[in-house]
Amino acid sequence: MRAHLQKMEPLLCLDSDEVRMIGIWGPSGIGKTTIARVAYNKLSTSFQLSVFMESIEANYSRPCSDDYSAKLHLQQLFMSQITNQNDIKISHLGVVNDRLKDKKVLVVLDGVDQSVQLDAMAKETWWFGPGSRIIITTQNRKLFRTHGINHIYKASRKFIGINFDFSTKNVKEKFNISERAFQGMTNLRFLKFQGGNNTVDLPCGLEYMSQNLRLLQWSYFPMTCLPPIFNSEFLVEIKLSYSKLEKLWEGIKPLPNLKWMDLSSSKNLKELPDLSTATNLLELDLGDCSSLVKLPSTIGYTKNLQQLDLCGCSSLISLPSFIGTSTNLQILNLGVCSSLGELPSFDNNFISLSGLDLSRLSSLVELPSFDGNFINLRTLNLSGLLNLVELPSFVGNFSNLKELDLSRLSSLVELPSFVGNAMNLEILNLNYCSSLVKLPFSIGNLQKLQYLILNGCSKLEFLPTDINLESLYELDLTNCFLLKFFPEISTSLTYLKLKGTAIEEVPSSIKSWSRFTYLSMTYSVKLKECPHAFHVIKELHVDDKEIQELPPWVNEFSRLELLMLNRCKKLVSIPQIPDSLTYIVAEDCESLERLDCSFQNPYISSLNFAKCFKLNQAARDLIIRTRTSEYAVLPGGEVPSYFTHRAARGSLTINLNEKHLPTSMRFKACILLVNENENDTRSNVTVTCKNSRMRLYDNFTEHLYIFEVGMDVTSSIGLFPTLTEHLYIFELEMDVTSSELVFEFKVRQNDWVIGQCNWKIGQCGVIQLSEVP
Questions:
Q1: Could you say which DSSP state residue 705 is in?
Q2: Could you list the residue ranges that cross the membrane (predicted)?
Q3: CA-closest candidate to residue 581, choices 605, 597, 565
Q4: Which of 156, 298, 398, 743 is the most exposed, having the fewest neighbouring CB atoms within 10 Å of its CB?
């Protein structure tokens, strides 16, 4: 297609202000409409008005008995479409010239087969403004000669591939494709449509696809079924993700060459056709096909199948028994198949399996035994099997297993014995195994283990002693509430997370841990006796409800990055704290009045003093004036006077000195939120700024606000928690393109949240920080 457009460039002569008519000529099915459509999509934004009149020979046939009435009717349709005014009325044939003589327009008249059509809509070049281009497609070259059209492109080459790519463009217009768009393209082998939802539509369906297709890729395919005239014999790949398909086709079709089929996220897909002829199928992706109830029961398509993805098929009730005989299967993903109540046995037939995901099968009560040879298995995910009564026997060979996820298995009291023999294991995830009491001594065999995650194992009391996991990089024991003794299971640790444990002291032996650089701890007065740990404590979590002030020795934590003061209700002041801090969270410290400190780190990210209603003015001023790369939050009922430009609601304008306009300016902004429904706490803030571009540094949490120019998203940051009677303060940088900067602060909830957003901007303010000449 690119070659066609390159050949048309001299004919279009876009740099010229002359009005040009360009003809595209060729027999039916040669691709004239496709060439014209691609040219239109590429060029239309450069014209004041544009219109694509498709299939004129079929859609605009003569409805009247005389030529004048026919022309009047066609001209009215033409003017209605190019001006986007459905109720337009014209009384004479001079309206096109009257309305468009000063407009630069792009007109495509597709499928012209009668002179009267050109006479009505584009008889003369002087009807249109300078720089206009009129493209006409026809099978009848005599029409060009009759109308004096000399710039003609002959579409003589048969198409073998078409690629419509809307994915990298901000496409707002929906493109309607004729039901006969591909009729006659008998040599078409590759057809690709890439783009967002609702970009392309087939209002009258699709009557025909090439009988020689090898590749069919169409994201968001808009039909419920492929066209009836569809030859599958040569197909190698079908990729119809996010489609509206309910089924592919009726009956059995030959699929001897099919290797890849992707129907993922086709939410309405209820069934698959008979795939018994797809004996060379390698990959089948049905992820998130939430209406799919069953797979084809005919054997054949699993003979050479290597990857089967059924993740998120929440209506799938059972699997065909022959899935268990798929000896070539390498990846099997059944995660979140929440209605699946039974699985095939895992025996020697799965010798090629390298990845198995059985996570979050909420209807599954019992797992089949793992008795086969799993010599090639690298990843095994059994997380979130909430109704599983007990784990089955694991007597197979798991010697090459690298990643094992047993998280959120509430019935897991002890690890399966095979874990101690998985000598190549690198990641072991036991998050929220709430019944797990201890780890076996055999875990010391895992000398390649790098990550051991035990977050939320609330009954875990003991870890093995006298072992040294030589490769262990991170050990996470967060919220293992009963754990009292410091874990000494590896001298190779880099990260150790002990927040929420009963561990109060750090042994001096850590001085010999050469790689140890990151320790998160819960505050204890006994830490004062552990100065050897001061340089590795990066996170300090204080949840002492009785503490009134932090001791001064906390300032000696020279590498502290996060200070979390969790609802310290009696805390009155914060002393001088380490300059290394980047995050300070003091949320709901209701007695906090003073900040006897300064924030010296120029790279501080976030200051959260939400619900600290007793802060004195000095503390408030310090928070407001401190520069952050993300945001600061503190109580407040109105935007402070520190912000020199203020306004009610979410909009304000700054007029700049026209004689000295910098290229960009940096501002500190402040917003105050109001909630029109007290039950609505799910929102995020979108900030737009006309004629400018804004930049921020990082994201924070899942609550996002997005900086936009028009509809083009450029960066995002988060505001959390979302509260009324609070000030949110952040910095933004904008390119200056005019003497007027318009700030429009808006609130928008996350796209995946259902329901109306009731959060609004109550007040806003900005102050200029700097400018770049």
A1: E
A2: none
A3: 605
A4: 156
The hierarchical CATH code for the domain 232-401 is: 3.80.10.10
216 within 8 A of 237, measured Cβ to Cβ? yes
Lowest mean pLDDT among 15-19, 594-598, 740-744: 740-744
Bridge partners, residue 192, by sequence: 163, 217
Beta bridge partners of 405: 381, 429
Convert the pLDDT of each residue in 505-517 to its tens digit.
999 999 999 999 9
- Cα distance between residue 108 and residue 92, in whole Å: 22
What span, in angstroms and rounded, lies between the C-alpha atoms of 549 and 597? 13
Cβ contacts of 477 within 8 Å, gap of 6 or more: 454, 455, 457, 460, 483, 487, 496, 497, 498, 501
pLDDT band at 529 (very low <50, low <70, confident <90, very high): very high
Alpha-carbon separation of residue 148 from 20, 115, 125, 413, 518 (angstroms): 11, 12, 10, 87, 79
Q: How far apart are CA 578 and CA 186, in angstroms?
A: 73
* Sign for the pseudo-dihedral over CA of 326, 327, 332, 337: positive
Q: How many CB atoms lie within 10 A of CB 22?
A: 22
Give me the residue spans of the domains in the chain: 2-154, 232-401, 645-772
Distance CA 79, CA 96 (A): 7
- CA gap 684, 238 in Å, rounded: 38
In the structure encoding, which two tokens stand for residue 145, read together? Answer: 């000669």
Percentages helix, strand, coil for the chain (3-state, rounded to 5) are 15, 25, 60
- b/e burial code for range 406-415 (CB count within 10 A of at least 16 → b): bbbbeebeeb
The pLDDT of residue 423 is above 50: yes
| CA dist., res. 166 & res. 31, Å (int) | 19
Q: Kindly give, in sequence order, each residue whose CB lies less than 8 Å from that of residue 444, ignoring residues fewer than 6 positions away.
A: 464, 466, 467, 468, 469, 489
Task: Tell me which H or E stretch contains 22.
Answer: strand 20-25
Handedness of CA 81, 82, 85, 87 (dihedral sign): negative
Name the DSSP letter for residue 84. T
Q: Looking at the domain 2-154, which fold is it?
A: Rossmann fold (3.40.50)
Q: Is the peptide bond before 368 cis (omega within 30 degrees of 0)?
A: no
Answer yes or no: are the C-beta atoms of 190 and 162 closer than 8 Å.
yes
Question: Is the pLDDT confidence value at 350 over 90?
Answer: no
Distance CA 437, CA 468 (A): 20
Assigned fold of 645-772:
Jelly Rolls (2.60.120)
Reply yes or no on whether the pLDDT at 597 is more than 70. yes
- Give the model confidence (pLDDT) of 479-497 as tens digits: 999 999 999 999 999 999 9
% of the chain beyond a pLDDT of 70: 89
The pLDDT assigned to 265 comes to 95
pTM for the model stands at: 0.77
Query: What is the rounded distance in angstroms from the CA atom of residue 426 to the CA atom of residue 420?
Result: 12
Which residues, including other chains, have CB under 8 Å from residue 613's CB and lie 6 or more apart? 590, 635
Cβ burial 44-64 (10 Å sphere, 16+ → b, else e):
beebebbbbbbebeeebeeee
The residue that leads in pLDDT, 581 or 33, is: 581
> 321 exposed, middle or buried (CB, 10 Å; 0-12, 13-18, 19+)?
exposed
Instruction: Give the E-state strand segments of 650-753 in sequence order.
Output: 651-655, 664-675, 684-690, 694-695, 705-709, 712-717, 726-735, 740-748
Q: Determine the pLDDT at residue 688.
A: 55
Average pLDDT in the 428-447 region?
94
Residue with tokens 């310090």, as numbered in its chain: 622
Strand bridging mode 684-690 / 740-748: antiparallel
Among 131, 132, 504, CA closest to 121: 132
**Helices and strands (H, E) in the chain, number of each type:** 8, 40
